Amino acid sequence: MSKKLGTIDTICAGYDTLSDTERRVADFILQNGGEIPRLSVREIAEGSQTSSATVSRFVRHAGYESFSALRLAIAEEQGVIEDDGSFPAATEISPDNAAGSIEYILATKIQELRGTALQLEPQLVNSVVDLIRWADTVEFAAVGNSIPLCSNLSFKLGQIGIRTICPPTTEAMILASLSLRRGDVLFVVSASGYSRRLETIVDNAEDSGATIVFVTSNPTSELAQRADVVLSAVSRDQMLAGSQFSSHISTDFVLETLFLFVFAGGGATHEHARMERKSLGKDKESTPTFS
């Protein structure tokens, strides 16, 4: 079983499911994380321009029985951050504090990657690696700017002999999903964990008996829960520019980890890589001509 997400990661993961007033509480906590352990419910309600009742509802939605429990969890997590020396020099991005903002972005992304690594249970990773290695075909599915991540992994798996298909558009992915068969793997990448078009693809995969692997920052979404295996990618985008602008750094970390495990598994992967180098290497070895 995956480890429980940290408080900030939990808030970011469930942000889109909150009401407008609860989002104001979430925004206040995300923007003032260092002060939260010293504030009361009333002070947070005033700071977020909501009510104490709204703060209490938000706390329950975040999975805590009381505000004191949430406050203690944040304080403990901040202690870990301070101990490893990665506490950010700023709490927001501002051109007026470029150096501090860069440190803040770096610290946020480091915590994303650490949180993601903690969520990757070794047994779960190995099971997905086996599914990829022994699949008849691995088909990728995504929407928007998640598609390039799938294209990259599909290409790299092809370099080591894994039969994959990654259509260039979600519509083409829907058509390809109609040809899925038992023994195939549908590999879904979605930060939000939901899309009507992805739902159609998952429907087709279920009808065909294909195994479904889901990589998402929202593992509790209804669509993710329909998958056979779910891998969580922690996202703190809400602390930076908002969940609308997914950076995908943690998701790419998950995909890169899977590729490296597949490649390290031996078998014919290294031989296929050698053959790929023989077939395509000359294109990279040509000497450029300067006029």
Automatic annotation (TrEMBL):
Q: Where are the transmembrane segments?
A: none
User: What is a biological process (GO) this protein takes part in?
Assistant: carbohydrate derivative metabolic process
The UniProt GO MF terms for this protein read: carbohydrate derivative binding; DNA binding; DNA-binding transcription factor activity
* The entry's keywords: DNA-binding, Transcription, Transcription regulation
Q: Where is the HTH rpiR-type domain?
A: 5-81
| Transcription regulation among keywords | yes
**SIS domain: which residues?**
128-268
Q: What is this protein called?
A: MurR/RpiR family transcriptional regulator
User: What species was this sequence derived from?
Assistant: Thermophilibacter immobilis
